[in-house]
Amino acid sequence: MSPPLTGLGWSSAAAAAPAGWTPITSTVEGAPANFGKGFAQKSGYFLCSTSAINSENPTGDVLYDVIILSEKTPLPYGYTYAKEFLDPKTSLSKKKRLCVKLIPLTAAETAVFDILLSSKHKVIPNYMRIGEMSGLALWCKKEHILKPKPLPKPRKVSLEMKHLSLEPDGVVLPSEKPVVPPGPKRQPTLKRNESIYDTSNVYGISAMDGVPFTLHPKFESSISKGTNAYSLFKSLHIKSLADIEKEYNYGFVVERTAAARLPPSIS
After folding, report:
1. How far apart are CA 124 and CA 140, in angstroms?
2. Is 24 in contact with 99 (CB distance < 8 Å)?
3. Which of 107, 120, 197, 252 has its CA 20 to 30 A from that of 239?
4. 93 CB-near residues (< 8 Å, 6+ apart)
């Protein structure tokens, strides 16, 4: 897609258009597009357009709207007359004036992308008719401006923020983990004096870590008096499975007797 227009102006001749400006020398039918030339005036002027962004338009304003006003109509707010690149011998007609409105590209949703000229009775599809000047009809094509979606800026972690991390030094983050070539699998068994909890970081601390192991004061007093540890548990009787079943056996006799006395259910 071509860029939107950034200005319209008048030039005394097609070859006299400034650098960066393109004159419209003919209509869509192929007739000369010379404004102002008539019975009383031998020379005329040409309409030219530009899409350039230069020192005269450093902010990159785009052409938002184009209108034609009569000499008695005041200039609307935000509109200006089209620029004039004319020699001293050429003058514009004041009966009708071409006015433009420029707005910043960042604030524009639509803009004028093209200007065409035709005869009064010609219809140009997909173009909007602006009006008539010097027997010629002016048309403009407005389109939506496609703006690139802003990309999120990458986050930068300062050195101070890295020191606040819970990860210890030397731990590789998941996004920065290097690719490890396949090797022998780790043995699932634990070695002696090796804990099942990984205490290398805060997520591997066990709930029992830091809890001291001490005996009940009753046993501590016995041991302090010189009692043998074996004698403390000498009276402890360990029951077998048969002893437990014999002691806690329950035959459900009462429940079976009560169930037998229930009246028959109604079918």
Report:
1. 10
2. no
3. 252
4. 35, 36, 133, 134
Question: How would you classify residue 111: left for phi > 0, otherwise alpha for psi between -120 and 50, otherwise beta?
Answer: beta
Cβ(13)–Cβ(63) under 8 Å?
A: no
pLDDT digits (tens, 9 = 90+) for 111-167: 999 999 999 999 999 999 999 998 899 999 999 988 766 666 666 666 666 566 555
- Do residues 43 and 37 lie in contact, with contact meaning Cβ atoms separated by under 8 Å? yes
Contact 5, 19 (CB under 8 A): no
pLDDT attached to residue 150: 65
Q: Which pLDDT value is given to residue 39? A: 47
Please choose, from the candidates 98, 111, 86, the residue with its C-alpha nearest in 3D space to the C-alpha of residue 138. 98
CA 140, CA 117: separation in Å to the nearest integer?
A: 9
Q: What is the DSSP string of 89-130?
A: T----SSEEEEEEEE-GGG-SEEEEEEEEE-TT---TT-EEE
**Residue numbers of the chain with a pLDDT score lower than 50:** 39
The answer to whether the beta carbons of residues 33 and 136 sit under 8 Å apart is yes
Q: CA-to-CA distance for 110 and 115, rounded, in angstroms?
A: 15
Outline where DSSP puts E strands in 145-265: none
